[in-house]
């Protein structure tokens, strides 16, 4: 994954939770967007690695891992 992200920071898929359908999902989205903005990396992507999803924020030249979750978890756990 490291080599792939170094070569193409925008690879992966758009994060699925970017279109929240509940108040709780909206709060989670706001928290993640705040993390990404505080890192100066406004774009969010997800990568599937085996049975896990990796949430990353990126720009054209930099990628930061924000969170990791097992596919059975309902949401990402983020720490600030």
Name a few traits of the molecule.
single chain, 4 strands, 2 helices, globular, 80 residues
Overall description:
The chain is an alpha+beta fold and 80 residues long. Helix content is 28%, strand content 30%. It contains two helices and four strands, in the order αβαβββ. Strand 3 and strand 4 (63-70) form a beta hairpin. The radius of gyration is 12 Å and the shape is globular.
Blueprint of the fold:
Blueprint: H1 2-7, E1 13-14, H2 23-38, E2 43-49, E3 52-58, E4 63-70
Spatial separation of the terminal alpha carbons: 24 Å
What's the alpha carbon Rg, rounded to whole Å?
12 Å
Anisotropy-based shape? globular
Classification by helices and strands: alpha+beta
Output the helix-strand order. Answer: HEHEEE
Beta-strand residue percentage: 25-35%
Strand order of the largest sheet: 1-2-3-4
Quaternary organisation: single chain
User: Which residue ranges are poorly predicted, with pLDDT under 50 across at least 5 consecutive positions?
Assistant: none
Residue-averaged pLDDT, rounded? 76
What's the total count of β strands? Answer: 4
Total of helices: 2
Largest sheet: 4 strands, antiparallel
Instruction: Report helical residue fraction.
Output: 25-40%
């Amino acid at each position: 994954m490291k080599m792939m992200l170094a070569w193409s920071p925008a690879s992966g898929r758009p994060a699925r939770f970017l279109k929240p359908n509940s108040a709780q999902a909206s709060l989670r989205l706001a928290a993640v967007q705040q993390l990404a903005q505080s890192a100066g990396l406004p774009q969010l992507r997800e990568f599937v690695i085996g049975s896990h999803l990796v949430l990353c924020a990126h720009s054209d030249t930099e990628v930061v891992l924000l969170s990791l979750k097992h596919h059975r978890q309902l949401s990402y756990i983020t720490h600030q």
